[in-house]
């Protein structure tokens, strides 16, 4: 399934966040992620095929960084999640 | 002022003191070889203890006071380890003065030697202060490759005038080489400790999220990915973090609220 077209991709969201892979990975693990940092980074970079749950875990990890900076969920979730537009960064 | 100062950057290369720290002789063996380093690590309970023990042993090795100054880009220089209080005071005086042999060695990446503080004309008021504190000489040698955006210097302070001949210079260069390895190792260990601390925090919030997913699976009769989706939708709707949504669900369960299928969180 292709992701919801509104909002930032994982890759753009990660680039815009300014986080290191380790910082993003710590957020991802804190939400329930089980992959290592290298695999998570590969998924972000290559937009590798992943299920909606894995995609949304990473999207949520990135969005929680933006929440800390006053922005409302700019990274898009999988199509199974109805998009509610937030503040764009 | 007589020839009381020796700036080795002015001297010919046969003194075997390399000006560019990147070109230090890689085969220089410090007084702390691999076995000594392992022993030092095993005797130290903390990373700070490891660094302090190194400077204490360097002080014993040379018969002088020893410290290590680090300068992370964008921060002020600071003493990361010292053999004793006098050394720390001599370092702090330089930082307050904004000038001194250690800071000069840091700036130029070259060794700086003061043979006699009572006759030293460089570094403003610092030599007079250092002399009052009890130092007569100092040798400041840059560390090698201690990490990205980081510079370091090993300082020796002597209470008597030093004879900075090739033998002493070689020993201090070797000490600086060992010190570089000690600082690099300490930084790696500190990075690992920080990662472990951050993982502990991450797992604490994850426990609450996992428990909330379990509660939702029971209440909504759904699988874990669907329960996670409910949490994310609530996070988006309320613009709060997932762990806060999870904490709310767990609190409502503790209050005895049974929840209901199809409920919004």
What does this structure look like?
The complex is a heterodimer of chains A (89) and B (265). Chain A is mostly helical and 89 residues long. Chain A is 52% helix and 0% strand. Chain A has helices at 10-17, 21-31, 37-46, 52-68. The model of chain A is unreliable at 83-89 (pLDDT under 50). Chain B is an alpha+beta fold. In chain B, 52% of the residues lie in helices and 12% in strands. Chain B has helices at 34-43, 47-62, 85-97, 101-108, 126-133, 166-220, 224-238, 242-254, and strands at 5-6, 65-72, 78-82, 112-114, 137-142, 150-158. The radius of gyration of chain B is 28 Å and the shape is elongated. Chain A binds chain B through residues 22, 26-27, 29-32, 51-53, 56-57, 60, 63-64, 67, 72-73, 77, 80-82, 84, 86, and chain B through 195, 198-199, 201-203, 205-206, 209-210, 213, 224-225, 228-229, 232-233, 235-237, 239-243.
As residue ranges, the low-confidence spans of chain A are 83-89
Mean pLDDT value of chain A: 84
Placed side by side, the strands forming the largest sheet of chain B appear as 1-4-5-6-2-3
Provide the structure class of chain A. Answer: mainly alpha
Biggest sheet record of chain B? 6 strands, antiparallel
What fraction strand of chain B? 5-15%
Report Rg of chain A.
12 Å
SSE pattern of chain B: EHHEEHHEHEEHHH
The low-confidence runs of chain B, each spanning 5 or more residues with pLDDT under 50, are 1-29
Helix/strand class of chain B: alpha+beta
Helix share bin of chain A: 40-55%
